[in-house]
Amino acid sequence: MVPEKAKTKLNMLKTLLKTLESVAVAFSGGVDSTFLLKVASEVLGDNVIAVTARSSTYPEREFREACEYAAAFGVKHIVIESEELDIEGFAENPVNRCLQ
Question: What is the second-level CATH architecture of the domain 19-84?
Answer without folding.
Answer: 3-Layer(aba) Sandwich (3.40)
